[in-house]
Design brief:
The structure is a single chain. By secondary structure, the protein is an alpha+beta fold. Helices cover 28% and strands 24% of the residues. It is built from nine helices and 15 strands. The strands form three sheets. Strands 2-3-11-8-13-6-5-4 form an eight-stranded mixed beta sheet. Strands 1-7-12-9-10 form a five-stranded antiparallel beta sheet, with no helix packed on it. A hairpin with a 5-residue loop joins strand 9 and strand 10. The longest helix has 29 residues. 39% of the residues are buried. It binds gibberellin A4 (GA4). Pfam families: 2OG-FeII_Oxy, DIOX_N. Belongs to the iron/ascorbate-dependent oxidoreductase family. It comes from Datura stramonium. Keywords: Iron, Metal-binding, Oxidoreductase, Vitamin C.
Length: 330
């Protein structure tokens, strides 16, 4: 893998790390999608963590490996070539700069949107392959993961006793669903005297704005989530499973019963981390508000807004900002 240029400590956010090797958290809820009691466990996981791991999914391994190998080839290309597929404004190839508000991370990435035509030609020419090969690899993977996300959202609705059960999943199934797909590459970050005992941030702390996010990574650690008790915990990597995040929009639709999980990625000094994330969002015109059946007898915590309005304000924010504050009822 080609390593990014040497990090300059002043330019990057860091976290102090008292011990070198991360101690992994063993309490991440594991949902076996083949088991009949999954729906209740999913609800519990969303309430307690806004995060869980999924096993026994039916996303074909060949879709994962195909896309992973294309991504490795792309990220291994010379930087001068990769830059031709950028900048990420917000879609395309991005390097260290995250979003448009000055956030930095030790990461390079590709961002693709379901709503704007993606320039596969640029990527394909860098890889020296037919654009259709790349388009097909992304589409096969995203379609399979989206199907799994919809199944999970339907189980969630059932677990919450909400009718109809497609109340959340229909938003992702809509042909105008505004979803995003992201490939992140975190090159190993060389140890350096300047920041020894500290971890450089690969991707700074944030919540995802959409409804649900589905993450798959290789076997390199780095992902951390923030627990309700204020502690950051390291999630043990598992390349055969998927990790699910509750997004801000689902937090609103459940009137705060589920919390969008704060998460971040720390760099690794030895190994590259590669992750692929599908962010399932609603159509731009969709009105987001707490579902009446989840308000019953309580106050609605959020004002109604369209996904378009939320997105506009999210894209102006810094990564670590609490983006929902603007939409809370006082
Ligand atoms: C976080 C979740 C997704 O990765 C993303 C990110 C987006 C970007 O990288 O362009 C944002 C970030 C994410 C939230 C706040 C804004 C927008 C960077 C940023 C500072 C693609 C998304 O939808 O929101």
């Amino acid at each position: 893998m080609v390593v990014l240029t040497k990090p300059v400590i002043d330019h990057f956010p860091i976290v102090k790390n008292s011990c070198k090797a991360p101690s992994f958290f063993s309490g991440v809820p594991v949902i076996d999608l083949s088991k009949p009691d999954s729906k209740n466990l999913i609800v519990k996981a969303c309430e307690e963590f806004g995060f869980f791991k999924v096993v026994n999914h039916d996303v074909p391994m060949e879709f994962i490996s195909k896309l992973e190998s294309e991504a490795i080839k792309f990220f291994s290309s010379p930087l001068s070539e990769k830059l031709k597929a950028g900048p990420a404004d917000p879609f395309g190839y991005g390097n260290k700069q995250i979003g448009q508000s000055g956030d930095l991370g030790w990461v390079e990435y590709i961002l693709v949107s379901s709503n704007s035509e993606f320039n596969y030609k640029k990527f394909a020419s860098i890889l020296g392959v037919n654009p259709e090969t790349i388009r097909a690899a992304v589409n096969d993977y995203v379609s399979a993961v989206k199907k799994m996300a919809c199944d999970i959202l339907e189980m969630l609705a059932e677990g919450l006793k909400i009718h109809p059960r497609n109340v959340f999943s229909k938003l992702l199934m809509d042909e105008k669903s505004d979803s995003v797909f992201r490939l992140n590459h975190y090159p190993p970050c060389p140890e350096n005297e300047e920041f020894s005992g500290k971890n450089l941030i690969g991707f700074g702390e944030h919540t995802d704005p959409q409804i649900i996010s589905v993450l798959r990574s290789n076997n390199t650690s780095g992902l951390q989530i923030l627990l309700k008790n204020g502690h950051w915990i390291s999630v043990p990597p598992d390349q055969n499973s998927f990790f699910i995040n509750v997004g801000d929009s689902l937090q609103v639709m459940t009137n705060g019963r589920f919390k969008s999980v704060k998460h971040r990625v720390l760099t690794n000094s030895v190994k590259s981390r590669l992750s692929m994330i599908y962010f399932g969002g609603p159509p731009l015109s969709e009105k987001i508000a707490p579902l009446p059946s989840l308000i019953e007898g309580k106050d609605s915590l959020y004002k109604e807004f369209t996904w378009f309005e939320y997105k506009i304000s999210a894209y102006k924010s810094r990564l670590a900002d609490n983006r929902l504050i603007l939409f809370e009822k006082i």
